[in-house]
Amino acid sequence: MNFTSALSYCQSIGYSLVSIHSMAENSFLQKQAGFALGMTYQSFYIGLYSPSRQTNNWVYTDGSAYDFTNWIQGEPSGARWSVGFRLSDGKWQTVSNSASIPFVCSATFNNTSPASTTMVPMTTTFSGSGSTVSLNCAPQLTTYYLFHFVDGSGTSDATFTSTQELVTIMSSSDNLDLDNRGIQQNTRYMFGLMGSDFIGFPNNVTNVQQIYEAFNSLNSRIPFPPIFINYTASLTQMANNSIYNRFDPNKEAPPVAILYPGVQNVYGAQNIKDGVTALTNLGFKVLAVNMNAGITDLTANLNDALGPDNVYTYASTTTDAVAFIMRRLCIIKPTLS
Hints:
Elements: H1 3-12, E1 16-17, H2 23-37, E2 43-49, E3 59-60, E4 82-86, E5 92-95, E6 103-110, E7 119-128, E8 131-134, E9 146-150, H3 158-171, H4 208-221, H5 231-239, E10 256-260, H6 269-280, E11 285-290, H7 296-306, E12 311-313, H8 318-330
Parallel strand pairs: 9-10, 10-11, 11-12
Antiparallel strand pairs: 1-6, 2-3, 2-4, 4-5, 6-7, 7-8
Helix pairs in contact: 4-8, 5-6, 6-7
Pfam families: Lectin_C (PF00059)
Organism: Diploscapter pachys
Protein name: C-type lectin domain-containing protein
Protein backbone atom coordinates (compact mmCIF):
# COMPACT_ATOMS: atom_id res chain seq x y z
CA MET A 1 0.00 0.00 0.00
CA ASN A 2 1.41 3.44 -0.88
CA PHE A 3 1.79 6.29 1.61
CA THR A 4 -1.46 8.07 0.73
CA SER A 5 -3.50 4.86 0.89
CA ALA A 6 -1.85 3.88 4.17
CA LEU A 7 -2.72 7.23 5.72
CA SER A 8 -6.30 7.00 4.43
CA TYR A 9 -6.69 3.54 5.93
CA CYS A 10 -5.43 4.68 9.34
CA GLN A 11 -7.74 7.68 9.31
CA SER A 12 -10.70 5.50 8.32
CA ILE A 13 -10.39 3.64 11.63
CA GLY A 14 -9.81 6.79 13.69
CA TYR A 15 -6.03 6.55 13.80
CA SER A 16 -3.11 8.14 11.98
CA LEU A 17 0.24 6.84 10.81
CA VAL A 18 2.51 6.31 13.79
CA SER A 19 4.64 9.10 15.24
CA ILE A 20 7.79 8.39 17.26
CA HIS A 21 9.04 10.69 20.00
CA SER A 22 11.73 8.79 21.88
CA MET A 23 14.25 5.99 21.50
CA ALA A 24 12.10 3.89 23.84
CA GLU A 25 9.15 4.17 21.44
CA ASN A 26 11.45 3.52 18.50
CA SER A 27 12.84 0.35 20.10
CA PHE A 28 9.37 -0.85 21.09
CA LEU A 29 8.11 -0.37 17.56
CA GLN A 30 11.09 -2.19 16.06
CA LYS A 31 10.58 -5.19 18.33
CA GLN A 32 6.83 -5.48 17.95
CA ALA A 33 6.80 -4.88 14.20
CA GLY A 34 9.51 -7.51 13.90
CA PHE A 35 7.20 -10.01 15.63
CA ALA A 36 4.40 -9.25 13.20
CA LEU A 37 6.38 -8.94 9.99
CA GLY A 38 9.13 -11.48 10.55
CA MET A 39 11.43 -11.66 7.54
CA THR A 40 8.69 -10.85 5.05
CA TYR A 41 9.33 -7.10 4.83
CA GLN A 42 12.35 -4.83 5.28
CA SER A 43 10.59 -1.61 6.25
CA PHE A 44 7.23 0.05 6.87
CA TYR A 45 5.76 3.54 6.69
CA ILE A 46 5.66 5.83 9.71
CA GLY A 47 3.74 9.11 9.73
CA LEU A 48 6.67 11.41 9.00
CA TYR A 49 6.73 13.12 5.60
CA SER A 50 7.66 16.37 3.90
CA PRO A 51 4.58 18.13 2.46
CA SER A 52 6.78 20.84 0.90
CA ARG A 53 9.30 18.30 -0.43
CA GLN A 54 12.18 19.95 1.41
CA THR A 55 14.74 18.07 3.48
CA ASN A 56 14.45 20.57 6.34
CA ASN A 57 10.66 20.39 6.63
CA TRP A 58 9.32 17.14 8.13
CA VAL A 59 5.96 16.83 9.86
CA TYR A 60 3.85 14.03 11.31
CA THR A 61 0.44 13.18 9.90
CA ASP A 62 -1.07 13.28 13.41
CA GLY A 63 0.16 16.84 13.97
CA SER A 64 2.50 15.90 16.83
CA ALA A 65 5.93 17.44 17.25
CA TYR A 66 8.91 16.33 15.17
CA ASP A 67 11.09 16.10 18.27
CA PHE A 68 13.07 12.88 17.80
CA THR A 69 15.01 11.44 14.87
CA ASN A 70 16.76 8.20 14.08
CA TRP A 71 17.89 8.72 10.50
CA ILE A 72 20.33 6.47 8.70
CA GLN A 73 23.59 8.31 8.06
CA GLY A 74 23.19 10.55 5.03
CA GLU A 75 19.42 10.83 5.37
CA PRO A 76 17.20 12.66 4.68
CA SER A 77 18.76 12.92 1.26
CA GLY A 78 16.03 14.49 -0.85
CA ALA A 79 14.05 13.19 -3.83
CA ARG A 80 11.91 10.91 -1.61
CA TRP A 81 9.45 12.50 0.80
CA SER A 82 7.98 9.73 2.96
CA VAL A 83 9.79 7.85 5.71
CA GLY A 84 10.33 4.13 6.08
CA PHE A 85 11.26 2.47 9.36
CA ARG A 86 13.97 -0.14 8.72
CA LEU A 87 13.27 -3.33 10.66
CA SER A 88 16.86 -4.56 10.78
CA ASP A 89 18.13 -1.73 12.98
CA GLY A 90 15.23 0.64 13.66
CA LYS A 91 16.78 3.39 11.54
CA TRP A 92 14.76 5.73 9.34
CA GLN A 93 15.17 6.22 5.61
CA THR A 94 13.36 8.25 3.01
CA VAL A 95 11.17 6.22 0.66
CA SER A 96 9.01 7.00 -2.33
CA ASN A 97 5.39 7.91 -1.61
CA SER A 98 4.40 5.23 -4.13
CA ALA A 99 6.31 2.39 -2.44
CA SER A 100 4.02 -0.54 -1.58
CA ILE A 101 5.10 -1.47 1.95
CA PRO A 102 3.35 -2.17 5.27
CA PHE A 103 2.50 0.63 7.67
CA VAL A 104 1.77 1.28 11.32
CA CYS A 105 -1.20 3.24 12.64
CA SER A 106 -1.38 4.81 16.08
CA ALA A 107 -3.72 6.83 18.29
CA THR A 108 -3.49 8.56 21.63
CA PHE A 109 -6.42 8.06 23.95
CA ASN A 110 -7.50 7.67 27.57
CA ASN A 111 -8.19 4.21 28.94
CA THR A 112 -11.66 4.65 30.41
CA SER A 113 -11.86 1.21 32.05
CA PRO A 114 -13.36 1.57 35.54
CA ALA A 115 -10.48 -0.49 36.88
CA SER A 116 -7.84 1.94 35.70
CA THR A 117 -7.48 5.58 34.71
CA THR A 118 -3.95 5.16 33.37
CA MET A 119 -3.15 7.24 30.30
CA VAL A 120 -2.30 4.91 27.45
CA PRO A 121 0.22 6.89 25.38
CA MET A 122 -0.03 4.97 22.15
CA THR A 123 -1.98 2.13 20.65
CA THR A 124 -0.32 0.75 17.56
CA THR A 125 -1.58 -1.36 14.69
CA PHE A 126 0.39 -3.06 11.97
CA SER A 127 -1.02 -3.52 8.52
CA GLY A 128 0.37 -5.67 5.75
CA SER A 129 -1.40 -7.56 2.97
CA GLY A 130 -4.71 -6.10 4.12
CA SER A 131 -4.58 -7.23 7.75
CA THR A 132 -4.41 -5.13 10.88
CA VAL A 133 -2.98 -6.34 14.14
CA SER A 134 -2.57 -4.50 17.39
CA LEU A 135 1.03 -4.65 18.48
CA ASN A 136 0.59 -3.71 22.11
CA CYS A 137 -2.76 -5.14 23.10
CA ALA A 138 -1.26 -7.77 25.40
CA PRO A 139 -3.78 -7.88 28.25
CA GLN A 140 -3.13 -5.56 31.15
CA LEU A 141 -6.03 -6.68 33.34
CA THR A 142 -6.08 -10.37 32.60
CA THR A 143 -4.40 -13.13 30.66
CA TYR A 144 -6.03 -14.92 27.78
CA TYR A 145 -5.97 -18.69 27.66
CA LEU A 146 -6.90 -20.36 24.44
CA PHE A 147 -7.67 -23.76 23.03
CA HIS A 148 -6.71 -24.89 19.59
CA PHE A 149 -8.74 -27.62 17.93
CA VAL A 150 -7.48 -28.80 14.59
CA ASP A 151 -9.49 -30.78 12.06
CA GLY A 152 -7.84 -34.13 11.57
CA SER A 153 -6.23 -34.11 15.00
CA GLY A 154 -7.80 -37.36 16.10
CA THR A 155 -10.59 -39.75 15.25
CA SER A 156 -12.16 -39.90 18.67
CA ASP A 157 -12.99 -37.72 21.63
CA ALA A 158 -9.98 -39.12 23.46
CA THR A 159 -7.93 -36.13 22.42
CA PHE A 160 -10.36 -33.80 24.12
CA THR A 161 -10.26 -35.95 27.25
CA SER A 162 -6.47 -35.86 27.28
CA THR A 163 -6.55 -32.11 27.04
CA GLN A 164 -8.99 -31.86 29.93
CA GLU A 165 -6.69 -33.94 32.08
CA LEU A 166 -3.73 -31.74 31.24
CA VAL A 167 -5.68 -28.58 31.97
CA THR A 168 -6.73 -30.06 35.32
CA ILE A 169 -3.10 -30.60 36.21
CA MET A 170 -2.17 -27.10 35.14
CA SER A 171 -5.02 -25.46 36.99
CA SER A 172 -4.02 -27.18 40.22
CA SER A 173 -0.49 -25.84 40.01
CA ASP A 174 0.62 -22.48 41.31
CA ASN A 175 1.09 -21.12 37.81
CA LEU A 176 -1.26 -18.21 38.41
CA ASP A 177 -1.13 -14.65 37.19
CA LEU A 178 -2.15 -11.50 39.02
CA ASP A 179 -3.63 -8.55 37.24
CA ASN A 180 -2.92 -4.98 38.28
CA ARG A 181 -5.70 -5.10 40.89
CA GLY A 182 -4.27 -8.20 42.53
CA ILE A 183 -7.03 -10.49 41.29
CA GLN A 184 -5.84 -14.04 40.84
CA GLN A 185 -6.37 -15.24 37.30
CA ASN A 186 -7.61 -18.68 36.37
CA THR A 187 -5.24 -20.96 34.46
CA ARG A 188 -7.74 -23.63 33.49
CA TYR A 189 -7.77 -22.31 29.93
CA MET A 190 -4.70 -22.99 27.84
CA PHE A 191 -3.41 -22.42 24.36
CA GLY A 192 -2.20 -25.56 22.67
CA LEU A 193 -2.40 -28.00 19.85
CA MET A 194 -5.10 -30.63 19.76
CA GLY A 195 -3.63 -33.91 18.61
CA SER A 196 -3.59 -37.61 19.42
CA ASP A 197 -0.08 -37.03 20.72
CA PHE A 198 -1.14 -33.85 22.46
CA ILE A 199 1.69 -31.38 23.01
CA GLY A 200 0.79 -28.25 24.90
CA PHE A 201 2.09 -24.98 23.58
CA PRO A 202 2.92 -22.14 26.03
CA ASN A 203 -0.26 -21.77 28.01
CA ASN A 204 0.14 -18.03 28.39
CA VAL A 205 0.10 -16.66 24.86
CA THR A 206 -0.35 -12.93 24.82
CA ASN A 207 1.69 -11.56 21.95
CA VAL A 208 2.06 -11.79 18.20
CA GLN A 209 5.26 -13.81 18.22
CA GLN A 210 3.87 -16.54 20.48
CA ILE A 211 0.71 -16.86 18.39
CA TYR A 212 2.81 -16.90 15.21
CA GLU A 213 4.96 -19.75 16.55
CA ALA A 214 1.94 -21.68 17.77
CA PHE A 215 0.14 -21.29 14.46
CA ASN A 216 3.14 -22.54 12.48
CA SER A 217 3.54 -25.48 14.83
CA LEU A 218 -0.13 -26.34 14.53
CA ASN A 219 -0.12 -25.95 10.75
CA SER A 220 2.82 -28.32 10.39
CA ARG A 221 0.91 -31.03 12.28
CA ILE A 222 -2.27 -31.07 10.20
CA PRO A 223 -2.38 -34.47 8.48
CA PHE A 224 -3.29 -34.99 4.87
CA PRO A 225 -5.94 -35.83 4.07
CA PRO A 226 -7.60 -34.19 7.08
CA ILE A 227 -10.11 -36.14 9.15
CA PHE A 228 -13.68 -35.05 9.86
CA ILE A 229 -14.47 -34.11 13.42
CA ASN A 230 -17.92 -34.40 14.93
CA TYR A 231 -17.97 -30.96 16.51
CA THR A 232 -21.22 -31.46 18.38
CA ALA A 233 -20.08 -34.68 20.05
CA SER A 234 -16.54 -33.53 20.81
CA LEU A 235 -17.22 -29.98 21.97
CA THR A 236 -20.33 -30.93 23.93
CA GLN A 237 -18.40 -33.63 25.77
CA MET A 238 -15.69 -31.12 26.57
CA ALA A 239 -18.20 -28.50 27.71
CA ASN A 240 -19.86 -31.00 30.05
CA ASN A 241 -16.63 -31.59 31.94
CA SER A 242 -16.72 -30.02 35.40
CA ILE A 243 -13.40 -28.30 34.70
CA TYR A 244 -15.16 -25.85 32.45
CA ASN A 245 -17.46 -24.14 34.88
CA ARG A 246 -18.59 -20.77 33.64
CA PHE A 247 -15.79 -18.25 33.88
CA ASP A 248 -16.06 -15.27 36.22
CA PRO A 249 -16.54 -12.30 33.89
CA ASN A 250 -15.50 -9.89 36.64
CA LYS A 251 -12.08 -11.47 36.98
CA GLU A 252 -11.10 -12.94 33.65
CA ALA A 253 -11.51 -12.47 29.95
CA PRO A 254 -13.59 -15.11 28.21
CA PRO A 255 -11.68 -18.25 27.29
CA VAL A 256 -11.19 -18.54 23.56
CA ALA A 257 -11.55 -21.67 21.43
CA ILE A 258 -10.17 -21.58 17.90
CA LEU A 259 -11.37 -24.17 15.40
CA TYR A 260 -9.20 -25.08 12.40
CA PRO A 261 -11.35 -27.09 9.98
CA GLY A 262 -9.70 -28.10 6.72
CA VAL A 263 -12.40 -30.20 5.08
CA GLN A 264 -16.12 -29.80 4.55
CA ASN A 265 -17.92 -31.05 7.64
CA VAL A 266 -19.83 -34.17 6.57
CA TYR A 267 -22.03 -33.76 9.65
CA GLY A 268 -23.46 -30.50 8.28
CA ALA A 269 -23.56 -26.84 9.26
CA GLN A 270 -25.88 -27.46 12.20
CA ASN A 271 -23.27 -29.77 13.69
CA ILE A 272 -20.83 -26.87 13.85
CA LYS A 273 -23.50 -24.60 15.33
CA ASP A 274 -24.40 -27.07 18.06
CA GLY A 275 -20.77 -27.62 19.02
CA VAL A 276 -20.14 -23.88 19.15
CA THR A 277 -23.27 -23.35 21.24
CA ALA A 278 -21.99 -25.85 23.79
CA LEU A 279 -18.94 -23.63 24.28
CA THR A 280 -20.62 -20.23 24.09
CA ASN A 281 -23.08 -21.34 26.77
CA LEU A 282 -20.05 -21.68 29.04
CA GLY A 283 -18.87 -18.19 28.14
CA PHE A 284 -16.29 -19.16 25.55
CA LYS A 285 -15.55 -16.94 22.60
CA VAL A 286 -15.17 -19.12 19.52
CA LEU A 287 -13.15 -18.27 16.41
CA ALA A 288 -12.48 -20.32 13.29
CA VAL A 289 -9.78 -20.41 10.65
CA ASN A 290 -10.72 -22.26 7.48
CA MET A 291 -7.45 -23.96 6.58
CA ASN A 292 -8.57 -24.74 3.03
CA ALA A 293 -9.37 -21.59 1.07
CA GLY A 294 -10.70 -23.68 -1.79
CA ILE A 295 -13.71 -24.89 0.21
CA THR A 296 -15.98 -21.87 0.06
CA ASP A 297 -18.93 -23.83 1.43
CA LEU A 298 -16.97 -24.43 4.62
CA THR A 299 -16.38 -20.71 5.03
CA ALA A 300 -20.10 -20.14 4.49
CA ASN A 301 -20.97 -22.71 7.17
CA LEU A 302 -18.51 -21.16 9.62
CA ASN A 303 -19.84 -17.66 8.91
CA ASP A 304 -23.33 -18.96 9.58
CA ALA A 305 -22.31 -20.55 12.88
CA LEU A 306 -19.96 -17.88 14.22
CA GLY A 307 -20.58 -14.69 12.28
CA PRO A 308 -18.16 -13.48 9.58
CA ASP A 309 -16.18 -11.31 12.02
CA ASN A 310 -15.08 -14.46 13.83
CA VAL A 311 -13.99 -16.42 10.76
CA TYR A 312 -10.81 -16.18 8.70
CA THR A 313 -9.99 -18.11 5.53
CA TYR A 314 -6.31 -19.02 5.46
CA ALA A 315 -4.55 -19.07 2.10
CA SER A 316 -0.81 -19.19 2.67
CA THR A 317 0.26 -16.14 4.66
CA THR A 318 0.75 -16.97 8.33
CA THR A 319 1.10 -13.30 9.24
CA ASP A 320 -2.46 -12.58 8.10
CA ALA A 321 -3.93 -15.52 10.02
CA VAL A 322 -2.06 -14.44 13.14
CA ALA A 323 -3.24 -10.86 12.61
CA PHE A 324 -6.83 -12.07 12.54
CA ILE A 325 -6.39 -14.01 15.80
CA MET A 326 -4.59 -11.20 17.57
CA ARG A 327 -6.98 -8.43 16.63
CA ARG A 328 -9.93 -10.55 17.76
CA LEU A 329 -8.21 -11.13 21.10
CA CYS A 330 -7.61 -7.42 21.44
CA ILE A 331 -11.32 -6.67 21.66
CA ILE A 332 -12.20 -9.51 24.03
CA LYS A 333 -12.22 -8.03 27.51
CA PRO A 334 -13.43 -9.06 30.95
CA THR A 335 -16.57 -7.40 32.26
CA LEU A 336 -15.00 -5.43 35.08
CA SER A 337 -17.11 -4.47 38.04
